[in-house]
Amino acid sequence: MNTPDLGELRWCKSSYSGNDGGDCVEIAALPSAAAIRDSKNPDGGALVLSHVAWRALGAALT
Description:
This protein is α+β, with helices and mostly antiparallel strands.
């Protein structure tokens, strides 16, 4: 699997996160995957999941 370039992505936080800079994750859409990173450490790397894995994670958390 090729590593996508994450530098130009539009990262989004949930509106439930608030603006206090607390413990949040950010997500960004890729053509065939979703990237997840820690908002407190945006340069610390990201977890990239296929769309199937992203949907499975969301289903497991709800």
